[in-house]
Amino acid sequence: MRDMRIRSIVATILEAPTIRRHKLSNTEIAHQGFVLVRVLLENGVTGIGEASTLGGPRWAEESVESIQAVIEKYLAPALADQNAMMFEANAVRMSKAATRNFAAKAAVESALFDAVGRTLDLPASALLGGQVRDRIGVIWALASGDSGQELEEAREKLRLRQHKEFKIKLGFNAPDADVRRLQHLRAGLGDDVRLIVDVNQAWTEALCLRLFPALEELGVALIEQPVPASQRDAMARVASRTRIPLLIDEAAFTNTELASVASHACGSVYSLKLVKSGGLLELKRAAGIAQAFGIELYGGCLLESSIGAAAHMAVFSTLPKLEWGSEHFGPRILVDDLVAAPLVFEDFEIHVPSGPGLGMILDEDKVRFMARKAGSK
Ligand code: MUC
Ligand code: MG
């Protein structure tokens, strides 16, 4: 059992349909593209990890095709025969083999934590410092663009006690139509329901200045990434002119970028994501850096299945503070999850899995069904 050298790493592209169309300012999806990573150790244990994308290389520059190629051609050879438990050394090896490519590296590192956790019969969170919480609040995203449908969807989530806070995706409609959509949701849901908006970089500074007063009036709790990620000065200026805290998302992937947007005062909350940090250890460091700047933490997602969500939960459960909870609704937007027993959602929270590794067991039939067939695009 003790021989934790890495024997093989295999990456498979999966296509998982969603229960409805999910719109963002710069893309729209009806299925999720994942790369499933399997790491086999010399002791016979297999660990699993997942890379998530959103609409091909749209949300970020990585696509399922690039992730699979980088893992198989560069990351797997760099880790061959290495001890899986040497997490930091393995992360250094991956960084030397490929710059950025964060989703690919995070998926491999997730699988290493899973494999080592299974070998030692410990949850991944124990290898990351141990849990300070075993349940995490979970936000749901409204993103069809049809406010009537969105109101029904939100009411159903409240009724089922699955979600009581909502993130509304903006920026794919005309700005005034977005404001009317929000007014409709606020009127239908009442004043006590927390509403967050995510503009996914779609607005200019001028548009922000024009629209933010209406968002303030509607009691919006957070505004996520309103302007393009590269426009740090503009983001800092709009942040200083609204009472609503700005949530930094695409503007900071690496921890150096995070320190830079923090010192630019671009926002006061940071969205933690494996797809940006490139690994569980680095994600945990991102939380520390944000906190050192006085920035609050939000558990971000990229519509992962229960596998990717469980990797995030392993880290989030160990953070001393996670002021805004998480948005890992991904498993619930899939027609079918990839695992035998999906993450448990109950009373507006996700239970942090307690089984060894990531605590998830693949459903091989579903994986076969969702695997991209040879020759298809
Ligand atoms: C993002 O930009 O936050 C997460 C939830 C969602 O609806 O979109 C993603 C990406
Ligand atoms: Mg976002």
TrEMBL record:
The entry's active site is K169 (proton acceptor), E327 (proton donor)
Supply one GO BP term. amino acid catabolic process
- Which cofactors must be present for this protein to function? Mn(2+)
Pfam families named among the record's database cross-references: MR_MLE_C, MR_MLE_N
Give the domain of life: Bacteria
Q: Does the keyword Isomerase apply?
A: yes
Tell me which PROSITE patterns the record gives.
MR_MLE_2
What keywords appear on the UniProt entry?
A: Aromatic hydrocarbons catabolism, Isomerase, Manganese, Metal-binding
Which intervals hold domain Mandelate racemase/muconate lactonizing enzyme C-terminal? Answer: 151-245
Q: Which GO terms describe its molecular function?
A: chloromuconate cycloisomerase activity; magnesium ion binding; manganese ion binding; muconate cycloisomerase activity
Similarity section: Belongs to the mandelate racemase/muconate lactonizing enzyme family.
Spell out the NCBIfam families in the cross-references: mucon_cyclo
Q: What is this protein called?
A: Mandelate racemase
